[in-house]
Prior knowledge:
With 285 residues, this protein is of the alpha+beta class. The protein has helices at residues 16-23, 42-51, 102-116, 185-188, 195-216, 219-228; strands at 32-39, 58-65, 68-69, 75-76, 83-90, 123-125, 129-133, 147-158, 161-169, 235-240, 244-253, 259-262, 268-271, 275-278. The strands form 3 sheets. A 7-stranded mixed beta sheet has the order 1-2-5-9-8-7-6, with helices on both faces. Strands 13-12-11-10-14 form a 5-stranded antiparallel beta sheet, with no helix packed on it. The longest helix has 22 residues, at 195-216. The model is unreliable at 139-144 and 281-285 (pLDDT under 50).
Amino acid sequence: xxxxxxxxxERPPLRQNALAKALTSxxxxxxxxxxxxxxxxxxxxxxxxxxxxxxxxxxxxxxSQNGGRGRLGRVWSVPPRSALTFxxxxxxxxxxxxxxxxxxxxxxxxxxxxxxxxxxxxxLKWPNDVLLPAAGLPSPNGYAxxxxxxxxxxxxxxxDAVVIGIGLNVSQNADELPVPTATSLHLAGSAxxxxxxxxxxxxxxxxxxxxxxxxQGPDGLAATYRERCSTIGLDVRAELxxxxxxxxxxxxxxxxxRLLLRLPDGSSQALSAGDVVHIRNPETA
Length: 285
């Protein structure tokens, strides 16, 4: 690491050697763990390595990511060393028809870690945004702002591989967050904001949950997902591909991981993709 990485002592760089030693041995081990000072996108880097034949189990972590992407092509950027930005490379043996569950399973793993290590009541907004209580932050208009987004997940399939990227806000102050519907572990009152500690917890949980997925399929994790999914039971607005907007009651999540939406006319619709907003009142949103 360059000396410049230590200029902000409250946001030190991640410790490559210690992380690699801790996370490449034991029952929840990854094949390799690499930390880089900066990159455009850890997902893009691992997608390219997947195309070149890299084996499963690689973890790539960036102290600073300047070209990160969220779902629907959104650009994702945070101050250096204020967040965890990392991706993992998988080559699942489960049928491809079940791969849509991988990002949902990853969301479960992140909530596992935040509940256990950070002491926070983390939940999920369908499909895989990780939410925390707003902790006194103002609620944006039209948003059920008792919960704010602390992490996002992006899964990309590449032939027989899947790359899962996770961005988790850790130490940002309110003025460093990109949108008013976001929060950080710091703002939510986490028991720890040490990025090494949180990263280890998330990666170990992710390894365990992915192993469950491989052995049990989505059926073994669906109940846990539904229990953690705070979208279920709320009125939502879904922004669908093609610029279509749909409002209704989130009635559940089916065996394919699709959100079941009960429409005002009483009919139902299963959503496999879309940007969902939790709203106070569907008639005024």
